Amino acid sequence: MVDIEVQIPSAFDPFADVDQDSGGGAGIKEYVHIRIQQRNGRKSLTTVQGLKKELSYEKILKDLKKEFCCNGTVVQDKELGKVIQLQGDQRKNVAAFLSRAGIVKKDQIKIHGF
């Protein structure tokens, strides 16, 4: 008989390398999500989530409110953590502010809505 070496392929997991890198964070992008929520009529809310936990949300909110002349608050959510809410459609303004202030890089910002 002829000895044939047969390799049986194991189950391929496309996310195996992601699980290994989850501790380091170098290969994973943490996105900051900027969304708009429609209230009633022309009124809307802009929400910012995904900022780093060690940042001072209150100071960022204070600067955002002063810069854009709008009101806002920090809301504690069970699933999402702290979320900044601003009155009006401030998506582009917030994205420009966060990148200009050096809080996040421009490629880490995701703008959602409409």
From TrEMBL:
This is Uncharacterized protein. It comes from Smallanthus sonchifolius. The lineage of its organism: Eukaryota, Viridiplantae, Streptophyta, Embryophyta, Tracheophyta.
